[in-house]
Write the C-alpha cells for this entry.
Amino acid sequence: MSTIILAVAEQIDGVFRKVAYESLSLGRQIADEVGGSLSALVLGSEIDAIAGKLKAYGADKIIIADDPSLENYLTDVYTNVVADVVESEQPSVLVIGASTRGRDLAARLSARLNAPVAMDALQIRFDGDQLIATRPVYGGRILADVLLDGSPRIVAIRPNAVSISGSEGIGAVEMFTVNPGKTALKFVKKTLDTGKIELTEADVIVSGGRGLGGADFSALEALADLLGGTVGASRSAVDEGWRPHSDQVGQTGKTVSPALYIACGLSGAIQHLAGMSTSKIIVAINKDPEAQIFSKADYGIVGDLFEIVPLITREVIRIKG
Amino acid sequence: MNIAVLLKQVPSTESYIGISDDGVSVQTDNVKWVINPYDEFAVEEALRIRDAHGGAVTIVSVGTGKASEAIRTALAMGADKGILISDPAAENCDGSGVARILSTVLSSIEFDLVIAGQRAVDDDNFLMGAAVAEFLDMPHMSMVFKQEISGDRIQCHCTVDGGSAVIESPLPALFTTQRGLNEPRYVSLPGIMKAKRKSIDIKALGDIGLDADTIGRSKIKIVSVKFPPQRAACTMIQGDSDQAKAVELVKALHEQAKVL
C-alpha cells in the first residue's frame, strides 16, 4: 500500500477555507498512523503566494496547480487536474473537505477513478490496513461505519468535524503542470456574500424558528455577531419567507456542527434536530416547556426569546468587558 | 426537449428509522415511503421545461417493486413514462453500482437533459448525479436553484458556499436540484386517473445487458450502524426573572461548558 496521503486544500479567491486546514489535519493524522507522508494540493490561479502556509499544517509536499483555467471552480477541469495529480502521486487516501464544491468534486472523482468515497465523514479509523469512516445517514439520525475498499480511498470530511492541529511538515513545494483536459462547462459569474460566515463553518450559530413570528431576526443577529457567529433558521422560518434557503438547518437544509448552537423559538422537529444534533453545546430558548428541542439541548430556558436573547447579549458584553 | 429524471423512493423525513438486530442495517418496516424530496423538485422542473419546450419526461429509478409507487406518483404529477430497474442483484450494490445501472438505462433512451436530486435523504451520499454524468461522459452542475435553456445550451444558478455561481453548459447535460428551484405541484385526481394509463417498464438487470459482475463489486461496505450518542439530560436554567436566567445561562456557558 502506498503511504502517500493527498489532501486537497480548498481556497476561494486566494483565501484558504477553514475546511482546508481541517483536511490537512486529518491527512496528517492518517499519514502519522500509517507511517507515511502528507501531500497537500492547492488548485487555483495565482495562488503560489498562499500555498506556503500549508507547511504549518503538516504538509510534507505542497503541490501547486496554478493555471488561469482553475481560477473558479468548475467540476470538469478540477476533476481532470485532480485525477492527473492522483495518477502521478498514487496516494492511498485522498482527503477532500465536504464543502459544497468539495462534495461535488469528490463525487465526480470517485466515478472517474472508480474509487470509493465516504461522503461527509465525521471521523475515520484504521482496522489493520482497512480504512473505516463514520458518516451520517438519514440526516444524521443514524451513524454508519463504512469500510472503503479500493484505491485511492476518498474521505470527504465534513466541515467542523475534525480539529485543526498545527504541526510542521517538510513543506517542499512542487509546481504541477496543469493540463485542463476536455472541458464543457463555462463559468459565467459568482456572487459571494463575503460578510456572512458560512453556516457549516461557523463556531456559533443562533437559530430561529416559527417563534420569531416574522422576518425580524435582529435580536438573533446581534447575539450572533457578538459571538463571531452567524444566524440559521428552521425550515418553517424559511418556508414563511423570513430567511433565505441558504440559512436553513436540517435534513433538507444544511447540517452543522458548531461549538455552540442556540435554538430560539424552535420546536425541534425531527428534521431540524437531524441537522444540528452534532453541535457541541446546544442551548434552547422556548416558551413551551414541552417543546421537543429541550430533549436534545444541554441547557434550556423557558421564556420569551424576545426578552431573553437581548439580555443574554447584554450579559455576554458585560463579562467580556 | 426530452428529459430524464433520476428518482429514488425513500422513507419520509418524518419517519422513525430504527436499527436492525444485526447492527448493520436499518429498519424501515413501518415507514412511509415517498419520492426523495430533492427528486420531487427534479420532476417538477422537468415538467415545466417540457411544457415550455415540448418533448417528454421519463422517470428512471432503481429499487424494489415498491418503488413503482413513487414512479406512479411522478406520472400523476405529469411525467410521461417510467422505467424501473428492479433486481435482487441490484439491491446490495453501492452508489457507484446504482449509477452504472442508471447510466446504462439512459444510454438506451434519447434525452437532452437529465435532472437528479442533489442527494437522497436516506443515504445522504451526494453522489448519483455526478457519477451518472461521469459514466455518460457528460457535463453536470450541482445544487441548481434556477436554470435557463436557450437553444442547445443551459445556464444554471448553483448554490456554492457563501453564495451562488452561474455556470453554462452545452446540452446534453445533467443538473442536480437545490431547494428554491420550484414548488412541486400536488397530485390531482385527474392526474392520478391519467397516470393509470401510462406505462412503467419494469426490467431486471439482464434486460438491459447487465449482471451483478458487470456492475462491479461494492467498494463501500457498511460494517455497523448506530444511533448518535445521547446527550445528558438538559439543564433547565432557573431564575426569578428573565434577567436572572440570562445571567445564569451565560455563566454556565462560560464556566461550565467553556464555549464563551
Observations:
- Chain A touches chain B through 97 residues (CB under 8 Å).
